[in-house]
């Protein structure tokens, strides 16, 4: 039992300190829940469903037109038997290079490790140790009619 959302389009992230703009694509999202046992009656099956989980899957890219650096990222979905949830692999390329100078693997919601062509291995990022940064958004009354928070305020209120 699952549901999938295929994200289309792209996003733009701007790093103001460096005057860099990154164009990125998004992974697909999945809500999953599977039976823990097979070959049992439907009545019994309903009582032993596993805990549902959210996972990301598919390929994404990040490109910086100013520097020419780019990355290819793969979010791996959990296989039916065995395997781990939340796995990610990525390759980072210098401008005009066909071979990556860095490969990354790990869990997108945990620790990711980098392996460089120089032979160096290091922790790329540990998301569990990252501080939470509060979003900076304008007050609702200062937003235009079609800005996201203003447009969706009634839905957000009713969901809460």
From TrEMBL:
Domain of life: Eukaryota
Family annotation (InterPro entries): OSBP_sf, Oxysterol-bd
GO cellular component: cytosol; Golgi apparatus; membrane
An MF annotation (GO) of this entry: sterol binding
Protein name: OSBL9 protein
Species: Aramus guarauna
């Amino acid at each position: 039992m699952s549901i999938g959302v295929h994200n289309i389009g792209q996003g733009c992230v701007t790093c103001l300190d460096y005057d860099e703009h990154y164009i990125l694509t998004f992974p697909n999202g999945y809500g999953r829940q599977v039976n823990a046992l097979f070959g049992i009656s439907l009545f019994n099956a309903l009582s032993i469903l596993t805990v549902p989980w959210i996972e990301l899957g598919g390929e994404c890219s990040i490109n910086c037109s100013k520097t020419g650096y780019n990355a290819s990222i793969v979010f791996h979905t959990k296989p039916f038997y065995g395997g781990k949830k939340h796995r990610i692999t990525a390759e980072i390329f210098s401008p005009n290079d066909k071979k990556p100078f860095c490969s990354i693997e790990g869990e997108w919601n945990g620790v990711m490790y980098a392996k460089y062509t120089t032979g160096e291995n290091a922790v790329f990022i540990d998301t569990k140790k990252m501080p939470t940064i509060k979003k900076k958004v304008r007050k609702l009354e200062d937003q235009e009619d079609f800005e996201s928070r203003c447009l969706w305020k009634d839905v957000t209120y009713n969901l809460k």
